[in-house]
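task queued by scheduler; priority normal; single chain, no ligands, no partner chains; default sampling; output format set to structure tokens
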Amino acid sequence: MFTGIIQHRAKLAAATRVAFGMTLEIDASGWDHAPAHGESICVSGVCLTCTSDRGIFTFDVIAQTLECTTLGSLSVGDAVNLEPCLRPDSLLSGHIVQGHVDGVGTVEDVKTAADEVRITIRPPEHLLDYIVPKGSVAVDGVSMTLAAVHPETFELALIPTTLELTTLGLVKPGSRVNLETDILAKTIVHLHRRMYDQEDATGADHG
């Protein structure tokens, strides 16, 4: 589990296709955290297991993860966000992030104002029910509060620190980003739908 507070912006050093999917090598030079072999690291919103801790960190990524996230489209030199897993004594500065990407969104607009940058993102349609005003969403692993919600898009308001320390400062219209919606919102919607499905099956009155 993670909090969406990015600790380091690293670079992809190599990406090698293998039988099960892909092996990613990430250069995290300057990061004061040293992941151990087998440790979970959130890489741009995706929970991955560190398989080598010899300077360049290595991660194995299966085909399903490549299909459901942006990791398969990364090129050598691209920036990625890194966050170590949450410890029992860690501060929960962001929100609960599992590292399980729900879908890939597309950046539609980037507007710069005097005190913030506004990014508009179009999520996949199946995620719209979990996008709520002032709710939380992880975008490439970054914990963000929804600044505005529209019928088919949502907006984020980014402060200079977020722009400087994460990959969100590099996005532009057309960029694809990993999205993980709030686990609480997903759970409530899921239970509500199951309740209504059961009532429909038994002919019960929703009222």
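post-processing summary
- Helices lie at 63-68, 160-165, 183-202.
- The first helix runs from residue 63 to 68.
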